[in-house]
Amino acid sequence: MNSARPLGLPHVDAETPAVLVLSGPVRRDVVDGLCTEVRALLEGGGGRVVVCDVGGLGPPGLAAVDLLARLELAARRAGGRIRLRDAGPALRALLDLVGLRFQVEGQTEEREPALGVEEAVESGDPAV
């Protein structure tokens, strides 16, 4: 039996981002620890994106908005970004209301039509 470590660098899957599961209710005393965890995940070589699963946060409020803003700031300072997973319509609307834009899994990017959607053209429309 050989227990020697293989030579070379360890395999890192850069296509699969790290996932941080957030559960609620959001308490002020855990925010700093979560920011540290986001920085550690980004600096650990797991890619430039940390996926934050926000499905367990509960009803959205300003505490959740503050947490997500701080996580995004910590991620940007570490050279990365966060992406939201399982963000409900109420949370997305609240983030939009306060002017925070996050990448959300499962949504098409801005100005990019969904797959299989064709634009209709009216016969009186001028050519572009």
Automatic annotation (TrEMBL):
InterPro entries listed in its UniProt record: MlaB-like_STAS, STAS_dom, STAS_dom_sf
Organism encoding this protein: Streptomyces cinerochromogenes
Entry-linked SUPFAM superfamilies: SpoIIaa-like
Protein name: STAS domain-containing protein
Domain STAS: 19-124
Region described as Disordered: 108-128
